[in-house]
Structure formats: structure tokens, C-alpha cells
Amino acid sequence: MDGPGFLTVFDQVAGHARRLAERGVRFIQLFHRGWDQHNRCPQGLRTQCYDTDQPSAALLQELGERGLLDDTLVIWGGEFGRTVYSQGALTSTTYGRDHHPRCYSIWLAGGCIRGGMTHGQTDDFSYNIVKDPMHIHDLNATILHLLGFDHERLTYRFQGRDYRLTDVSGNVVREIIT
User: Fold this and answer.
1) 3-state secondary structure 139-173
2) Distance of alpha carbon 178 from alpha carbon 124, whole angstroms
3) Do residues 144 and 154 lie in contact, with contact meaning Cβ atoms separated by under 8 Å?
4) Hey, is 81 helix, strand or coil?
5) Which stretches does DSSP call E strand in the chain?
6) Which 8-state DSSP code applies to residue 23?
7) How far is residue 159's CA from residue 157's CA, in Å, rounded to a whole number?
8) Which of 1, 59, 126, 170 has the smallest set of CB atoms within 10 Å of its CB?
9) pLDDT in tens, 82-128
10) Are 54 and 15 in contact (CB under 8 A)?
11) CA 3 to chain centre
């Protein structure tokens, strides 16, 4: 892990993303690999968060300072949800977390997303959704809405059938939009 004052690769990539947004690039996707923490969670997550937290915050701050955050939608997520309970031997340095398909955390910023709020809640074990569930079709419908698309009309024909990204469901979640 780099020490304070050193740029991580993600720092540099986030800086490039900001410059691309300034130049009008419409879709920018950043990747940071290695989030599949099935063991050595304390060290692995510390390293991953060090690499991404401050660069992500700096990206949002710079977009805001330049007036780009109002019309730039930032979506930040991992591969899927994680449980809070241990996978493998429970020690102070080697435990991991298992996959969890029911609950998934993601954050959105800018692009008409209401700031400073949380939508949805899991139980204490991160196992079940207990408040304000949002299906992936709802998330996709909301993102498409923010990008100016009607998810019910955005279709493509395949093998004689019209398909859409939100399948046969999906609702725009207006509570998270300003």
C-alpha cells in the first residue's frame, strides 16, 4: 500500500475521468479489481478502500467545483451484496465475507440524485431487505430516466421479440431524484 502523498493508480484514473467529463465524453467507466474478499478481509478491504475512497471523493468534489456534477450521473458499486458474518476461520486477520444476492449496496451522486439520503435497509445480518427494496429493474429504470430514456420504450428486437433492459417490470424510483 502506498503511503500518504503517493498517488494510487485509481487516483490517476479518477483524474482522467474528470478530464474526460470536462471534454464532453458521455460515458466513462472506471474499474478497480480485487473486491472479492473471501479471506483476509481486514487487510484486503483496507487496501481497496485506501485506493478508492479519497479518489472517488476527489472526483465528486472536482466535478462539483467545475459545475459538472449537476448533469453527470456517478454510479459506484461492487459485484454484489456481502454478508456481515464470517466465511472461514474467525480470526482477527483472516476472516472473509460470503456473497449475498439479496442485498446490494450502491451509491449514486450528481445527475439529479437527491444527496445525503439512504434508500433501503437490510436487517442486522445484511441478509434480508427490511425497508424500501429496490429491484435491479427499478434501478435500471431510474438510471435510464435520469439519462433521458423511457425504459418502457427503449427496446431491441431479438428472435422476433421486443426486449427491454428492465424486462417486463421496473419503476422509476422518484424518492431518490431531486
Assistant:
1) HHHHHHHHCCCCCCCCEEEECCEEEECCCCCCCCC
2) 29
3) yes
4) strand
5) 73-77, 81-87, 96-100, 106-110, 121-122, 129-131, 155-158, 161-164
6) T
7) 7
8) 1
9) 777 777 777 777 777 777 777 888 899 999 999 999 999 988 888 88
10) no
11) 26
C-alpha span between 147 and 152 (Å, rounded): 14
Q: Which residue, chain included where needed, has cell 502506498?
A: 2
Q: Which residues contact 84 (CB under 8 A, 6 or more apart)?
A: 97, 124, 125, 126
Closest CA to 175 of 124, 137, 134: 134
The residue written with cell numbers 478508492 in the block is: 52
For residue 11 the three cell numbers come to: 487516483
Give the three cell numbers for residue 128. 434480508
The residue among 135, 128, 131, 117 whose CA lies nearest residue 173 is 135
Q: What is the mean pLDDT of residues 4-32?
A: 78
- How would you label 74-102 residue by residue, b for 16+ Cβ within 10 Å and e otherwise? beeeeeebbbeeebeeeeeeebbbeebee
Q: Say how many Å lie between the first and final Cα of the chain, rounded.
A: 38
Taking the mean position of all CA atoms in its chain, how far away is CA 178? 19
Residue indicated by cell numbers 467545483 = 65
